[in-house]
Amino acid sequence: MIYVVIAYLWASLLLYILLGGADFGAGIVELFTSRRNRKKTRRTAYEAIGPIWEANHMWLIIAIVILFVGFPVIYATVSTYLHILLVLMLMGIIARGTALTFRNYDAVVDDMQRLYSRIFIYSSFVTPFFLGIIAASAVSARIDTAESSFAHAYIFSWLNLFSIGVGLFTVAICGYLAAVYLIGEVKDDREEMRRYVIKSKNFSAAAFCCGALVFLAAWLEGIPLFEWIFGSMYGIVAIIAATISFLVFYTRAQNINPGILRMIAAFQVLLILFAATYAHFPDIVLIKDGRHLSLLEHHGGIKAIENLGRALLLGSIFILPALFYLILSFQRKKGISH
Q: Does 338 have pLDDT greater than 60?
């Protein structure tokens, strides 16, 4: 049952990046849109994310619950030594959701709308930025559980070039996903479709540059990222497949069905996540003193894992069909309204 629980944990993180990441990316795309097109982009993005933006955070909640119930030692370590980042990320999620609601449903339209928009777009940027830093800090072997100094224990473990680079890479990936997803929302408008194709290419170029920064920072700071990704045949194959799919996207984006483009983007993110986590699986947190927190060793009691696995399997029967039906219903509604 432990592998069932781990599979759900990995799947929930992947789905949060694919769906929640695209959700954040809508604000990032708006941030990097000219004033002339910002209102149009805002309307298109809201029509796309409006029906399910709140449900996207379900995947993050599932991941947190799995860690809390199934892997209490890992949960306690991350929530203790990375608590500043976690609080900032949660504040970003709350601020973003609040601003989105007031911006679209406030009964009075006045200058506050501009404030809501600023909060929405900037929190859309900083939230995945902090999420990326958390992920990088967990595997950079900088967390020092023996440190007594507050700054060294709770700040310098994540305040470094590698973690910041991963944070920027996460932001670029979210913007890329959102731009690709939005192509399908404007498929009847060739000019708008072309604009989002250009944006998706720009964000993919930004992701490539941020990825280069991550590798450089890892090399400077002694993090074996290159060995993790290119040290096995699986990692090499994943990177080659991701590169080929990027080339296909770059050369054929305007002529490929938007649904296929979305699957290509999701496939690329899946490969990147696989390449980055495969080499040190099942270790999920690397400690400065050389210790590793492993999903296979540092889990809860057998009964807790068995009950958690059963709950996840049973919950899937009810939650997943309802979620897919929600998405399908709003897609049909948009088709009818058009």
A: no
* Mean pLDDT over the full length of the chain: 86
Output the 3-class SS for the chain: CHHHHHHHHHHHHHHHHHHHHHHHHHHHHHHCCCHHHHHHHHHHHHHHHCCCCCHHHHHHHHHHHHHHHHCHHHHHHHHHHCHHHHHHHHHHHHHHHHHHHHHHHCCCCCCHHHHHHHHHHHHHHHHHHHHHHHHHHHHCCCECCCCCCHHHHHCCCCCCHHHHHHHHHHHHHHHHHHHHHHHHHCCCCHHHHHHHHHHHHHHHHHHHHHHHHHHHHHHHCCCCHHHHHHCCHHHHHHHHHHHHHHHHHHHHHHHCCHHHHHHHHHHHHHHHHHHHHCCCCCEEEEECCCCEEECCCCCCCHHHHHHHHHHHHHHHHHHHHHHHHHHHHHHHHHHHHC
Q: Which two tokens stand for residue 81?
A: 């030594």
Percent of the chain with pLDDT over 70: 93
- Over the stretch 51-73, which tens digit does the pLDDT of each residue have? 566 677 888 889 999 999 999 99
Domain that holds residue 91: 2-337
b/e per residue 47-60 (b: at least 16 CB within 10 A): ebbebebebbebbb
Q: At which residue do the structure tokens 């909640």 appear? A: 61
- The residue-averaged pLDDT of 34-55 equals 74
Burial of 203 from C-beta contacts in 10 A (0-12 / 13-18 / 19+): buried
CA distance 316 to 329: 19
Domain count, the chain: 1
Rounded to the nearest angstrom, the gap between the alpha carbon of residue 127 and the centroid of all alpha carbons in its chain is: 10
Q: Mean pLDDT, to the nearest integer, of 43-50?
A: 72
What is the C-alpha separation between 174 and 26, in angstroms, rounded? 8
pLDDT digits 0-9 by tens, 273-298: 888 888 788 888 989 878 889 999 88
